[in-house]
């Protein structure tokens, strides 16, 4: 739940009255409260190099689900692939039952099997688009009916060892020998995709997008095999305050645990309504002011107006987070 209050501050930037400017100052209040209902969509790359990674996601499910079970979250979990080549099936929830719930017998084993979606999918992975197709009309009212619930929080998790190639036809007829993600000029801009995703909230307060994807090529991971940086997936995660995981980690336990804690209501990031003047940001958890910093404090992502909490600075469940700041001028 979020409460926002806007006030006006007068700031003098000179000695004369003619040199006064008005700056808007705002206060946003967030509550670190457990989620009651959460719909979780896993978007899993089904291209040739993904078998081991799919298995590691399945093995980490117990770490993921622990946070949800701790607070009694009623979850829906679905899995889609990154393949858009067969458009009629693209975005369709995999397996039977399509929706995994707390009532699904041995749901952990079902999930572990479900995320192993095979490796015969398209080498033009379009996970951002398949997720959007899965959650919009007509798919969400037909093949995927029942997955989304009114009032439920939404989490989208991408898992891929290559970058997204959502193009909406931009790559039609282009030489397929060159990797599609190297043709950024022909891909759908992530700014447009972020705008579309915002429409998925439909008035709901909580939506999280996270990504377990390839790291920067400047990093050394000799045991990771072949990967490419998941920059477009990471951009989506940044825009929606989600976790950005490294697919080259040998053990997914910590990442899966962090995802589970986040979706169960222990958020580590909060998206502001406006861009903030960073030096004016004041952050409080209940009555305590939290210092800025990566060690047990908060940091601000000015590109996506997101406040991140770190270490002991992460607000506990049941707490109130108040963020005061001056709104940055457009541009």
Helix content: 10-25%
How does the major sheet shape up?
5 strands, antiparallel
Task: Tally the beta strands.
Answer: 13
Number of separate structural domains: 2
* Percent range for β-strand residues: 15-25%
Question: How does this model look, in words?
Answer:
The chain has 331 residues and is an alpha/beta fold. The protein has 2 domains: 2-32 and 268-326, no CATH class; 37-263, Rossmann fold. It contains 7 helices and 13 strands. The strands form 3 sheets. The chain has a 5-stranded antiparallel β-sheet with strand order 1-2-13-9-10, with no helix packed on it. The chain is globular.
Defining key terms:
single chain; 331 residues; alpha/beta; Rossmann fold; 2 domains; five-stranded antiparallel beta sheet; five-stranded parallel beta sheet; 13 strands; globular
Task: Give a brief description.
The chain is built from 7 helices and 13 strands. With 331 residues, it is an alpha/beta fold. 40% of the residues are buried.
SSE layout and pairing:
Elements: E1 2-12, E2 20-31, E3 37-44, H1 51-59, H2 61-70, E4 74-81, H3 107-114, H4 127-134, E5 153-159, H5 190-198, E6 207-213, H6 231-239, E7 244-246, H7 253-263, E8 269-271, E9 282-285, E10 288-289, E11 298-301, E12 306-309, E13 320-326
Helix pairs in contact: 1-3, 2-7
């Amino acid at each position: 739940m979020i409460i926002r209050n806007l006030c006006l501050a007068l700031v003098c930037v000179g000695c004369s009255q003619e040199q006064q400017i008005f700056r808007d100052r705002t206060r946003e209040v967030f509550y670190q409260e457990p989620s009651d209902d959460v719909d979780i969509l896993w978007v899993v790359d089904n291209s040739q190099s993904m078998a081991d990674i799919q298995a590691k996601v399945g093995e980490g499910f117990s770490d993921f689900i622990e946070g949800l079970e701790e607070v009694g979250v009623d979850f829906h979990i679905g899995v889609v692939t990154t393949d858009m080549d067969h458009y009629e099936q693209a975005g369709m929830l995999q397996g039977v039952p399509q929706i995994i719930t707390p009532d699904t017998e041995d749901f952990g084993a079902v999930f572990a099997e479900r995320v192993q979606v095979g490796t015969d999918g398209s080498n033009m992975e379009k996970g951002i688009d398949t997720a959007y197709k899965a959650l919009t009309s007509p798919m969400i009212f037909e093949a995927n009916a029942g997955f989304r619930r009114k009032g439920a929080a939404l989490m989208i998790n991408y898992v891929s060892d290559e970058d997204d190639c959502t193009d909406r036809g931009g790559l039609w007829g282009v030489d397929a020998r060159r990797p599609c993600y190297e043709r950024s000029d022909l891909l759908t801009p992530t700014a447009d995709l972020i705008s579309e995703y915002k429409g998925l909230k439909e008035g709901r307060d909580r939506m999280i997008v996270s990504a377990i994807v390839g790291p920067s090529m400047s990093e050394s991971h000799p045991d990771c095999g072949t990967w490419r940086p998941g920059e477009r997936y990471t951009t989506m995660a940044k825009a929606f305050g989600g976790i950005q995981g490294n697919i080259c980690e040998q053990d997914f336990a910590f990442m899966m645990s962090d995802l589970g804690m986040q979706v169960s209501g222990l958020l580590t990031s909060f998206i502001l309504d406006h861009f903030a003047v960073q030096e004016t940001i004041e952050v409080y958890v209940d009555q305590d002011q939290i210092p800025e910093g990566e060690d047990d404090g908060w940091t601000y992502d000015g590109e996506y107006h997101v406040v991140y909490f770190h270490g002991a600075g992460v607000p506990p469940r049941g707490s109130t987070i108040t963020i005061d700041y001056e709104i940055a001028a457009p541009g």
